[in-house]
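Dissemination and training. As part of the outreach component of the grant, students in the summer workshop were shown how a complex can be specified as a set of sequence lines and then modelled as a single object. The example used during the hands-on session is reproduced here so that future cohorts can follow it. Participants entered these lines:
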Amino acid sequence: MVSENSVAIVMRTYERPIMLARALASVCQQTYKNWTLTVVNNGGDPSRVDDVVNIARLGWPQAVIDVVHLRDRVGMEEASNVALSQSHTDFFAIHDDDDSWKPTFLEKTVRAMQEQPDAVAVVCGVTRIHELARGKTLRPQRAEAFYLDSHHLTFDGMIGNNTFPPIAALFRRSLLDNIGMFDASLPVLGDWEFNLRALTQGQFFYLPERLANYHTRTPDSDVVAENSITVGQDRHRVVKERLIERWHSERTPDGRNKGEVARTAYEMFEKYESERVARRLQPAESFVMRQKRRIVYAAQHPRVGMRAVVRRVRQQVRK
Amino acid sequence: MLYSATELLNKHPHIELVTFDFFDTLITRTVSQPTHVFAEVEHQLVSSFGERWKGFSYKRVRAEQRARAVAAQDDSYRDVTFDEILNVLSTDMDLSVAEIELAAQHEMATEIALVKAVPFGRDVLDEVQRRGMAVMIVSDNYMPARHLVNMAHAAGLTNIEVSHVMVSCEHGGMKHNGRLWREVLEYSGVPAKKILHIGDDRNADVEQPSRLGIATYRDPRMRASHRFPENTHPSVLPLSRLEAWLRDDMYASEWETSRALGAGPIALLVASQIADVCDVIGERDVRGVYFAARDGWLAHQVWDNTLSASISIPAHYLAFSRSIFGRASIAEVNDHVLDRFVGQNEQLTPRQLGNRFGCELDAPDGVDVVLQADQLRELLVVNERVVVEASRALRGRVIGYLRSIGITSPGHHVVVDLGWTGATLADLSDIVREASNGEATVEGRFLGLYWDATPHRTRLAMRGYAVDDLDATENNLRLLGVIRFFETLMTAPHGSVTDFADADGNFTPLFARSDIETAQYSAVIGMVGEAAIESASAIVRGDHPASVTLDELTREVAWATMMQVGQTPRKDEVAFMSRLRHVASVDHQDDGIPLIARAPRSSSTLPYSRTQVLFRDLMNQYWPQGTIRAWEREKKTSVLADNIMRYWPIMKHRWIEVDE
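and obtained this result:
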C-alpha cells in the first residue's frame, strides 16, 4: 500500500561503508517521514553493507530501508533503475552515498511539489563541501555555495552542461512512466541525459534554500573515496561527445536540432570555464603596485583620500 | 556602591528634578536582553502567519542598524524613528504595507506583554513622587513617548505621563551624544546642579550628563544578563527567560557567575539530555538507560530526582572512560597503542606508565627513574606480554562490571553522553555485543557530535541532539571550540575511571584522583553542578519559576544554548572560566591546561603564518571563543583577537545563520 506523497529514495553504494553510514543518517534524520530507502549495493561486500544498514536501523527503528545486493558491479544508472523499477511512490530521489541532505530537504521539496503541480522536479540550493578522506577519517576542509539559479534548470540552461548534482533534486515518479528510466548504457552523465528528457514533460522548480550538500574529495584524499566527477573528467568529456552525437538526430522542444544546440552551449560553457580558470590564475597585484594605485586614486579624489586617512587614524585611536 | 532609594535621595538633598533612563532602569523585560523581544515577536509571527516571518528577529536588529546609518548621513546627532526602521525592514524582508503594520503591532504588543518594573527604579520613583519632586524620563529610543508611557503603565508605574517623557527620536538628539541632555535642561528649566539622573549606561547616563553638571547614579544590574545583541532567534528564548529570571533572582544580592552558569545554560543542556532520553523511550522499547561517566553525572542526578519514580525503565550511572576501553582492547603493543598511551613529549617513571595499564613493568634501571617518551615506548615494547595480559584481565573486569549494571542483558540500551565523536561508546558497543552474543544493542545519544564521529557510525547507532557531523561545517568547528568548556563544567565529583575491582569486590569502579580536578570541583564546579541539578530538575518537573518546560527543549534550543554561552560568553563568565583548567591526559594525573590561553608577546604584529599555528593550538587545547573574548577586551591583545576573527569568521560573535 503506497500512501500519498510518498518518496522512494535510491542510494547506490560500492565499498564505502563510512560514507554510506553518513548517507543513511542523512536520510533517516529527515523530518518528513513518508519515504522508503533502497540501498543498492553495486557489487560490493554484502556483509559490510548489511552491517552498516543494521546499525542505521538500530538508531531509527521506524525507517524503511531495503537492501538490494547486485552480484556484479554495473553502471550507476543501471543500479538506480533496479531500485526505481520496484518503486510505486509519488516522488523519487537519488541520494548518492557520499552526499547528504539537511534534515528538512524532503519536507520542503515535497511541499514545493505539492504547491507546484506543473513541476516535474524540485531542485534546491546546494552547498559544496570539499572534504579530505584519509584512512577512516572524513574531514571537511571548506564549504562553498554551489552556483545554481532557475535559468540553470531550464532546457537552454542545462543543454550545455549538467548544472546540478542528483542530491539536489526530487522528481515525480510519473516521469519514469512517461520518459522511461535512466539510460543504463551511460557510465556517467546519466542524470544529465535524464534531466534533459524530463524537461520535455514540465518545468524544474527552483527552491533557493541550500538543503543539499554535495561532497567532493580534495585531491590529496585516498583514491577509493573519490567521486565520479572529480576523478573521471576525461570520461565525462567522452560521454558528452557521444551524447551530443546522438542528439543530432533529435529535436529540442522548440524544434531545433538538439545536437547542434548542445554543441554550441557546450562550447560556450568551455570558453567561459577556461576564461574563469585564466582569471583565477592571474598573478595578484603586487603590494607596491597596489599602494601606488591607492595613492594615485587618493590624489585624484582628495576628499575620499582624506576620509580614508581620518578613518584609519580613528581605528588606531580606538585600538 | 549600590544605595537604597531613600539613601540615594538623602545623599542629594538639593535636587529638584530626578531624571530616569527608561529601559533597564525603570522597566525591564522577562527576557535577558532587549533584542530577544524581537525573537518573541518572530515566534508569534511564525506561529500565526507561517514561515514567511522566519529570520524576522535578526533582520529587525539589522534594520535598526541600517536605519541609524542612513539617518547619520544627514544628521549624526539625531535618533531614528520606529517608522524609519520599519521602512528599512520592509525593503529587507519585502513586506507589504499590511505586513509592516502587522509586525509593528506585534512588536509594540510584545513589548507591553513582556515588560516589568525594575525594583530599584520603581522604589526611587515612588520615593521621588512621595517627596513631591519633579520626575522626567530621558531615553534614547526609537519608540514614541506615548508607547513608553504605555509600557510604564503595563509595568505598574501608573503615575508616568507623556509630558514626563523625553525620547531621543522626538527631540533631534540623543543622550549618547549629549544633545538630548541640553534639550532636557532647556525643556525642564531646572539648573543642572539641581538634577539627579539615574541610569545604567556609562556614557549616556553618566559621562554625558556629568559634563553638564548633572549629578548621576548608575545601576547596571539589569545589564548583567546581556549578551551579543545580533544573536536573536526564537531558539534563544528558553535560555533568555532563564537568564532573565536569574538576573531578577540575584538582583538584591551579589551576582554569582557559578549560579548563573549552572542554573542557566548548563541546566538547560542537562534538561535537554533528559528530553532526548524521553524522545527515544517514546519511540521504542528500551531495556535500560545509562548516563555515561562523567559527563552524564548531572543528568543522572536530575533523572533520579524527577523521572525515576514514574518511568519503569532502569537508569544507571555508567562508569567508564576512553582510556579504560583502550586498555581493555590491547591484543598487541603496536604504534597505535604507543601513540595513545605515551604522549609526544611525556616524561614518566616506569611505575607511572605501568599504572596506566594496571601492571608492573620490568625496567632495568628501576621503576622510579624518570624516562623520556622514546624510552617509555621502548619499555612498553619490551614488556608487551605483561601489557597484553593486563589488558585481557582488565577486559574480564570490564565485562563483569557491564554485566553487573545490566547493559549486557538482551534488549536495546541507551547511553547518554556529552559527545563528541562517539569513539568510546562505539568501543563499548563492541564489547557489549561480544559479551551478549549480539543480544544486547547500544545506542549513543549525545549532546553534540562533529565530523570525526562519522567513521563510528559504522559501529554505533548514534544521534547528536544539538548538532552532529552532518550539520554545517561552520557549526562543527564552533562545536569543536566549545568542547573543553562544557567538559569542564558538566562533570562529576569523582575522577576518571581507571579500573574496576575484581569479582570479590563486585567489579566496583575505581576512580583516578586528580588534585587539580578535586580542587576545582570543591572550589567552583561543584556549585555550578548543584545549581544545574536544581534548575534542570525544576524544568523536567515543569515547575521552573522561569516557566521553561521540557517540551520546549528542541535541537535548536540546545544548540542556541551551547552557542550563547560557549561562543558569546559574558565578561564575568570568561573571568570565571579563566580560573579553571582542563585535564585530559590518559590517567588524569597532570595539571591540565587552562581554558583561557595566554596571548603571545608582540601579539599585535603576529604574521598570518604564526596566527595560523596559534589558532590551531587554541582549537586543540583551549576554549578558543573564550580566549578570543578575553583578548578582545585587553588593549594589548585586541588586534590579535580582531585578526583571528577576520581570518576565521566562525570565531566572530554572531553564530546564528541567516540568509541576508
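Chain A touches chain B through 30 residues (CB under 8 Å). Students were then asked to discuss how this feature might be tested experimentally.
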